[in-house]
Amino acid sequence: MGTVTKRVSADGRVRYRAQVRIRTDKVNFSDSKTFSKKSLATEWIKKRELEIEANPKIIETGEIKYPTLNDAICRYLNEAENFGRTMQAGLRFLTSFPIGKKKLDKLTRQDFAEHVMLRKRGVGNVAPIQASTALHELQHISSLYNHAIFVWGYDLDKKELTMAIAGLKKSRIIAKSSKRDRLPTADELQKLNNFFYERWISSDTKIPMHLIMWFAIYTCRREKEITELKLINFNQSSMDWLVENIKHPNGSIGNNKNFHVTEQAFRVINELMKPEIKKRMCIENTDLLIPFDAKTIGTYFRRACKLLAIDDLRFHDLRHEGATRLAEQGLNIPQIQQITLHESWSSLQRYVNLSKRTDILDFENALKISKEVI
User: Fold this and answer.
1) pLDDT band for position 52 (50/70/90)?
2) Residue 51 sits in the same domain as residue 73
3) Is the pLDDT of residue 179 over 80?
4) Which intervals hold domain Tyr recombinase (predicted)?
5) Are residues 322 and 286 in the same domain?
6) Long-range contacts of the stretch 326-329 (C-beta < 8 A, 24+)
7) Longest dimension (CA), the chain
8) What is the pLDDT of residue 104?
9) CATH code at position 230
10) Has residue 178 been placed in a domain?
11) Measured distance CA(329)–CA(318) in Å, rounded
């Protein structure tokens, strides 16, 4: 099917023309390319024949039309499901940069490196990003490449992307996220509790953030998990609560697990289930414990921290605070796992051998103080 023809140009240079031809009653396909060495021409023929075997439509259309990165992202997001918010937003954001206009098969390590440097410098109204965010963007592209190769049948070589990631890591331009160790102080928790409690009693807000905050600490649950806990999944006799579709790198659908409800968490649950609070939250006709959008809870928390001048504290840090408290109470890693539902011991290793803090604020004392000062 493939032939190599030696040719000598007018200036005496030797060139090798590789040609792949397929002729049948219905098909008259021909493709060729010229090389400086016979070995390169032979290698091209082998590669071209493999491409045709994997994608027979090539001989009908003449060539596979590879999409731009932008078009591939749109198709990927439409076809694949169960993406986390971070990955969805990250992929969509990529379409606003020059790299998105390039064809998938034409992207080089230089393209990936230039994109990372552009993102780290910042452009227009888009602020510079950290090394870990840059790595995440390249990892998102890698996931898209895998889908394009295995599902769409594209003959893509990830070598350029792999080499770009390796080189940028070696020069420390991109890197994994450093382990976050920010925990709220007792004073910060009291300020937040006062703020949220004052809003609860003096406004018509339906979200009892002063309770949700402590529920997050005592259950070690993520924002999204908190807002999707079903009352029917709480087994009070065993003090276990089933969490459906827990976040997981391999997909969350069907990843359901029970976490142990501690006495402290149960006391907060009882507060949330009081008739007057249920009515205010409008959960009388729902099967959810906290029927609010996770983004809304996160927004309320960030606004409060900003107004109270509490720097660099995130809602997710409450999960770390909860795990830290469990370790300080003397629980071992398997016992902590029953509550946090971390899969690996390494994720919890930093909580081992902690020196116990002396200024731990609990829910009852915080609420008592808030009622006294407001």
Assistant:
1) confident
2) no
3) no
4) 178-368
5) yes
6) 326/220, 326/351, 327/351, 327/352, 327/354, 328/354, 328/356, 328/357, 328/360
7) 97
8) 92
9) 1.10.443.10
10) no
11) 17
- Residue 364 and residue 227 share a domain: yes
Q: Are residues 278 and 234 in the same domain?
A: yes
User: Tokens 């950290």 sit at which residue?
Assistant: 130
**85-134: pLDDT as tens digits:** 677 888 888 888 999 999 999 999 999 999 999 999 988 788 888 999 99
Give, in order, the Cα–Cα distances in Å from 273 to each of 216, 220, 278, 319: 16, 19, 6, 22
CB neighbour class for 127 (10 Å; exposed up to 12, middle 13-18, buried from 19)? exposed
**Do 267 and 369 share a structural domain?**
yes
β-sheet with 234-235: strand ranges across: 234-235, 240-243, 257-260
Q: d(Cα 92, Cα 89) in Å, to the nearest integer?
A: 5
CA 206 to CA 196: how far, in whole Å?
11
| pLDDT at res. 33 | 80
What integer pLDDT is reported at residue 238 of this predicted model?
A: 96
| 132 and 279 inside one domain | no
- From the number of C-beta atoms within 10 Å of its C-beta (0-12, 13-18, 19+), residue 211 rates as buried
Pairing of strands 2-8, 234-235: unpaired
- For 306-328, the pLDDT digits (tens) are 999 999 999 999 999 999 999 89
**d(Cα 321, Cα 218) in Å, to the nearest integer?**
9
Strands 14-23 and 240-243: unpaired
Examine the domain organization and report whether 111 and 249 are in the same domain. no
Structure token digits, residue 125 = 């109204």
pLDDT, one tens digit per residue, over 7-30 is 776 667 888 888 888 777 666 677
- Residue range(s) defining the domain that contains residue 349: 186-373
User: Do 101 and 132 fall into the same domain?
Assistant: yes
Long-range contacts of 240-248 (CB under 8 A, 24+ apart): 243/341, 246/341, 247/84, 247/222, 248/343
Distance of CA 224 to the CA centre of its chain: 13
